[in-house]
Structures are given as C-alpha cells and as structure tokens.
Amino acid sequence: MPILGRHHRRHAPTTDEARRMHPREHAGNGPATAAPTAAAPTAATPEAPITPNGPAPTTAPAAASDAGPTTAPTAASNAGPTTAPPAGPGPTEWRGAGTPATATGDPATVNPATRDPYMHHDGDRPFEMWEGRSRIVLMPTAPPSILGLLGFMGATVMVGAWFAGWYGTPATPLIIFPFAMVFGGFAQFAAGMFAYRARDGVATAMHGLWGSFWIAFGIMQLLVLGGLMPAIPKGAVNPSFAWWFIVLCVITGMGALASLAENLGMFTVLGLLAVASGFTAAAFWGGFSVSLTIAGYLFVASAAAALYTASAMMFKNTYGRVILPLGEWGGAHKNIPGRIPSMPIQYEGGMPGAKIGQ
Fold first, then answer.
1. Residues 6+ away with beta carbon under 8 Å from 350
2. Residue 147 near residue 187 (C-beta atoms within 8 A)
3. How much is the pTM?
C-alpha cells in the first residue's frame, strides 16, 4: 500500500510539542536569567582643610582599602552551572528498543533485525502525533502494473506466436484483434493512467505506449475488415508499418534503462520487448522473414517475463510478503521468499482510508 499522504498541521505546535519533535534545536533553550551585578560601594573623599597658604595637600585613602573587595559576583556564580546537556541524536534518527546510541549518532549502526521503525531514540512513539495531524490526499491503489503486464502478456503472446510461425493463417489478425485491442489495449492503457496516481513514471509511459499500440493495431484491423485499407501480410515490405516498431523500440529501450533502477523483472520484460521491436522493424523494412521469426520468439519471451513479473506483484500484494523474487535493489531481504519486503508508514488496517483488497 502506498504512502497515504503528507503531513498537514492544523495549528502551530506548542512549546512542549516543539521540544518533543526537535530536541536538538531546543536543547538548553530555557529562559535565560542573569543575576544583577553587585555594585561596589565607593568611599567618600574627605574635604581638604583650608590653611593660610592654601589647601593642605591630603591623600585620599584608597577606596579598595576601606570599601573592601569590589569584585562583583558573576551571573554564573549566582545562576548555577550553565553547562548545556549534550545534544542527542537528531529528530530523524531512529533506533530500535534497547539499542545504545553511539557518539556520532549514526543510524547505520542500528541492527535492522531488532530495529523498531515506530520507536524514537528516546523511547517515544511520535506517530501518535503524526496520526492526529495528517490527512489522506491519495486514494490507496493496487499496483497498476499487475493489470498492465497481464494485458500486455495476453496480446503479445498471441501475436508473437503467430510471428514465430507456430500457428495461424492470413486471416489470423482479424480473429485475434478484438481480444488484443480490449485486453492488451484498453485495459493496459487504463493501467498506465492509474500509474499516474501510483506515481510510477515507468509504468505510466510503458503501459500508455503499448496500450496505445494495441488499440491502434485493432483499429487498423477494423479498417481492413471494412475494406478501407489493404491487409499487411506477414513478412511484407512496408516501411510505413516498420516505423511503428522503430518508435516502439526507441521508447521501450529508454523505459528498460529506467526500470533498471527498480527491479530486474521489469527490466527483463522491457529489454526483450525493445529488441523484439527492433527485429520487427527490420523485417517490415526489408522483408526479412528470418528477422520476423526471431522477433516472434522474443515477443513470446517478453510475454513470459511479463507473466512472471505480474504474478510476483500480485502475490506480494495479496500475501503481504515476497513469494516470487523480482530482483529488487535495496537489500537481500526484498528478494527472499517469505520475507516482508518493507514496512510502510501508513494507518493501521480498518482506519479511515486504509483498506485491504477491493
């Protein structure tokens, strides 16, 4: 389940809340009071007596000898010790229960096996305040690529097997296009649009691209069926149709490189798909039947990888743990069957906006 929303504060935090949320910034920031400095008494200078020859020289006694010590006590001596307590770890450093803090406060020293992601370093659980000061801004959704990859697989495996020569006649495109257009086209395109809400740029681009292709393929077969354009036989020379696959090859290749940052499953699907599109473009550009046969096998392999990737996502979404590894980055625990891959920040099940399943 994705992150449910940003924090939206309803009012300014109180002083206690601010100290609790940012202990380092407010460490030792209590009201500072300084004791008044005692002023030293000054001794009066006696008036010099008048003599016939003028005022007699007199020496005024030293003020310090009569008035005593004049050193004023410092504010620190009256106000007590002023040594500030040592600053602890920052507010964003989390530690498991019973995990000792290091001198540097490095979160990397925390043992992941005993780490409590909901426990602060001082033993507090600040998510109680987080739950009371947040609101949901995104509707929870299942992974859109589950539908997108399955729709892609259904359409691609049929056309790929036809390209490879496993079955079919010249009328095969007219028979398979309704299924390919609806499941591989409309359903996959809808998955790409829902990927916007899931904030998945790769899924948005790839499902939108290939959903559009299968919709266009269906429209082309409808035009052939209506007699508005001639059919394009398998292996025929048609550079205009070859340009479809040139565009598909370039964009899909870029998507494969981008998906490499997520997991190896999606990279395998898109990598095989980009190469298959290249061989198909070459086949329709120069009429190379061998190139089209190779493309058919690559399309079937890409469809098989899409089935595996979609199944892994679906099992992970329903069971809440890894069943089929996808080669995700960020730790071996994400690819071990039976392990919980992550612990997202979210409301508990049953609270408003948090819903498991349809």
1. none
2. yes
3. 0.59
